[in-house]
Amino acid sequence: MYNYGDSICILLERFPALIPIYKEGIYDYENLPYVFYESVFVRYITDKAKTFDEIELSNIFNFVEELLVDGDEELKNLIGVAVIESLYHEKHFSELNMLLSKFYGELTKMSFDDCF
To answer: Domain count of the chain?
Structure first.
């Protein structure tokens, strides 16, 4: 089971490309997983969507699904609010959703459906 207290470490382990961003803004992100996931991870997702990096998008949404399945309740809430809802409220979400939906797992899809 994944724990909310480890949420930033878990993200950085799976996506090491985010480490320099975290280190650069550590005072903005340390102990603030909602801020880091919403401002950095969501931007990372949208950047990968713009270039349609299928391998990385698959990794991203496998990770999201994994946390929704095996995370504690606080971590599931973090993913639901900071990632799913943030993506849902992106300016061009309908286009993003059409592009990304093929990567969604069952719980990820349900979370997006709950936003509608």
So the answer is: 1
